[in-house]
User: Fold this.
Amino acid sequence: MIPLRLSEIRDIVGGTLAGDGADVVVDGAVVTDTREAVPGSLYVARVGEHADGHDYIPSAVEHGAVAALTTRPVDGLPCVVVDDVQAAFVALSRHVVEGVDGLVVIGITGSSGKTSTKDLLAGVLAGVGETVAPVGSLNSEVGVPLTVCRVTPTTRFLIVEMGARGIGHIRYLTEIAPPRIGAVLNVGTAHMGEFGSKEAIARAKSELVAALPAEGVAVLNVDDPAVAAMSAATEARIVGTSAAGAPEATVRATDVTLDEAARATFTLITPEGRAPVTLGLHGAHHVANALTVAAIARECGLSLPDIAAGLGAGRPVSRWRMEVTERPDGVTIVNDAYNANPDSMRAALSALEGMGGQRRTWAVLGSMLELGPDSDAEHAAIGAEAARRGVDRLVVVGEMARPMVDGATQAAEEAGARLEATFVADADAAHDLLVDEITSGDVVLFKSSRDAGLRLLGDRLTQMEVPE
Ligand SMILES: Nc1ncnc2c1ncn2[C@@H]1O[C@H](COP(=O)(O)OP(=O)(O)OP(=O)(O)O)[C@@H](O)[C@H]1O
Ligand SMILES: [Mg+2]
Assistant:
């Protein structure tokens, strides 16, 4: 946080002061969860569906918060009282962004890979300047201001993950932290239920590049036609990326190969030359993410050797994204069950195929949420994809995912593949089946939407006591 007196915060957000605190200085983290407060914190008391943040003031005090942003005076802390806490939080964030000279704001959006890309980018940029990036996947109207308020007077790079569940959401986030560099990774079908169509999803993502100034830079993945088309939506200079090596892309990859753990090696090509890169992240889809990172880092002034070295040094940061664990008994657990949509399911199955080789592969797959009326068909198509990717054992977990079984069985028959598909009602049933049947040498992928809980099942299998 940039240190601010409470009287300054009052003026920035247009509120009134309650309690004796005009000269109190906020210099600790701004938090919406009192448990995260530290000495010097400002506690933003939001009113949610289930809880009223104003009830947690004592906990904020206990953790060291020195002030609160509220809609009514409270006991125990001096506060700035406003009509609309969210609007005030946005105004405060905007002030922080504008108050730091030379701060480069970078926005990242896309249907899949935002968090993976921001983690990799944060690692690369941290080598050359103080970098603030979201914790985990904080990408909403609350997560973005929380991240922005971590900026200090010496921060050089602010990376903002921008998620959308509807039209206008990303534009709103760009008003909180106006980016100079904006990257769009891909347009998939995540949150199709809310958007209604892929065109609407593309329109929502394009709000990021539409918000860029003329002197800004739009990093667009030209391998995705819906992303490439966004060049028409921005005044900014376009920098194209292509994991397929498309020559029109400014930053591209050729000679992509995968090792036995599905880590990619490729030649990175930029206008400055070529450099070999080997990623520490699992899955071919990370090549596209890495190129986006390379294009952004290049705009931030990094040299090609520094970019290549930084990409190679990246390791999984946020949990349950293609987390690969080798168990002592020779079983490989691949836990990618942070979340799932059809595109990330396909990416994970492709990585599983790459890691399988001669080994037996298991895909333990749960539901993909928010797919709307196409839900059954999308699940069936993922079952079919598993069969095409040579999965030996498919375990389908939970009622919503059940159509995967038929999709897989049918595709396996057509392809003459030997896939065996099993339906189980829940993660516990899957656990019992797996404990009985997985054996040394197997590769087991876990993948589902967050609510299906397979990431925890993956953890149980990873931590399972196994004979040496
Ligand atoms: N470029 C990509 N294309 C397809 N799938 C990807 C890509 N990058 C990452 N993934 C996969 O997508 C899933 C989500 O990755 P990640 O958390 O990085 O995405 P996100 O866009 O931040 O998601 P969310 O919208 O949930 O915040 C993971 O399973 C990951 O392995
Ligand atoms: Mg994310």
About this structure: The radius of gyration is 24 Å. The mean pLDDT is 95. The pocket of adenosine-5'-triphosphate (ligand 1) is lined by residues 110, 112-116, 137, 139, 163, 185-186, 283, 285, 288-289, 321-322, 336, 338-339, 343-344, 347-348 (CB under 6 Å).
